Amino acid sequence: MNNNPSMQKVAALSDFDTQPMKCVEIGDTPILLIRSGEQIRGYQAKCPHAGAPLEEGALCNGRLVCPWHKGTFEIDSGAIVEPPPLMPLKRYPVKIEGDNVLASPTPLDESAARDASATPDTRTFAIVGAGAAGATACSTLRQAGFTGRIVLIEREPRTPYDRTSLSKFVPAGEMSPDEVPMLLPDDFFERESIDVIQAEVATLDAGAKRIDIGSAPSIHYDAALVSCGGIPKRPSLQGGEDEGVAEFVRLLRGRDDARGLVDTATPKSHALVLGASFIGLEVAAGLRNRDVAVTVVSPGKVPFEKQFGPEIARLVAGLHEAHGVQFRMGRHAVAVKRNDEGSGERLCVTLDDGATVMCDFIVAGLGIELPTDFVTGVEHNEDGSLDVDASMRVADGLFAAGDIARFELPIEPYGSIRVEHWRVAQQHARIAAHAMLGSPRDEPFVPFFWTFHYDKTIEYLGHARQWDQTVFIGEPEKFEFIALFGEKGKLVAAVGCDRNRQMGALAEAMRRTLSIEDAKKIAEEA
């Protein structure tokens, strides 16, 4: 007998004989039902990160993998396994009566009141940088039960937000800089009693466990996480700092940068993009959507060939060319000056072969520099990065995450790497947060990033320095495929487009070493 008046029949148990997931609606409330053994679980139907329909995701190893950005949740609890979502899935009451599945549209109240009688935690944890990693660390620490003081230090106001939108959606006019979504609820920091300090860190002394922020009192920490990210490189151009030139050289890191880019990118203007990086070509695609002419200058042969291989790289380049992008590959820009002729584009850029390109503004996509000089008492690599162990530890009480962390990926045959993508930064931060609490996680993680060009999203799993085998599943020329990269018979990376569920299954399976044949079976059967 159903004694809960809000419970309604929403499905039959037999519906799950052939499919493990089903999305139902009670009024305006969509609920995702998932069969787990003899039970049916009820969760919010859209991913808390970006609203992806979770029913289109993959179920693997007792986990649900989001179809869009590969956020991962435990099926039995809705707890986060992998970001980018930073909040667990909302749960709904579900009951089985005979062959009837009943559910309520009122979510379970799972607000955990902290035990006032527990011994107060007097530790202070400091986090430098309120980007993807900093936000993740704050969320993970509180969800794991840390009740001590958390200090989050960031120089930019109104953070943390989704910086990936700045290159993917803002240049295209699909989103204004002020509409870029936040990574955590508006009231999160106040509700969780997190001290947010807008300041520039002058020094972090790892030996003294002290952070100096100018004239403000120093912060003494028990554990600290450095997650400051990178700073875009400014192009080294003769004349690049001249009056009438410097203001038309655009970098892209924060909201203000994006706002300046949008203000400059008027229809019919001409942009010169320096560097065929992911940032550079995502911006190029967005600007074409604004009817801005785009020329790309880059020293490589084909964009993304190092990451995607020649076949996929040529397809991506062809996609840009079909949308009107002009490429000057194999070239460097060496000088720039104002065009004072009074007509046409405002800048004249000279390339290393003597050729010139006229444009109205320049967008630099030349990679990043690592601003880690403020960290003292530890060794720095030549590029400024910091070596970390499996728990993201740099030194006693000091951890690093994201662009600045050089780490050993514990899956054959990757070795020591550094990855510049915000989802990896979030993975690092979750590992570091648990280690700061003294409960390190030892489960391998799989690097993942995605890039967006026009209406095509390309996903990348793993990390391949080199490979001797490529296996295609699907139709690459239609941008509907998975490419498996193998080295000595083992899967080292996978690239996919319009294969969300299959890539989700691979994301979970790649926690262990896979043969190319096993990876192919997973991709074909998911």
Strand order, main sheet: write it out: 14-13-12-18-32-31
The secondary structure category is: alpha/beta
What is the C-level CATH assignment of the largest domain? Alpha Beta
User: What percentage of amino acids are in beta strands?
Assistant: 25-35%
In CATH, the homologous superfamily of the largest domain goes by the name FAD/NAD(P)-binding domain
Q: What does the overall shape look like?
A: globular
From the N-terminal CA to the C-terminal CA, the straight-line distance is 38 Å
Please outline the major beta sheet. 6 strands, mixed
**Rg estimate, integer Å:** 25 Å
Which fold name is given in CATH as the topology of the largest domain? Answer: FAD/NAD(P)-binding domain
What is the domain total for the residues?
4
Name the poorly predicted regions. Answer: none
Q: Averaging pLDDT over every residue, what do you get?
A: 94
Q: Do you know the CATH architecture of the largest domain?
A: 3-Layer(bba) Sandwich
Number of strands: 39
Number of continuous helical runs: 9
Helix content, binned percent: 10-25%
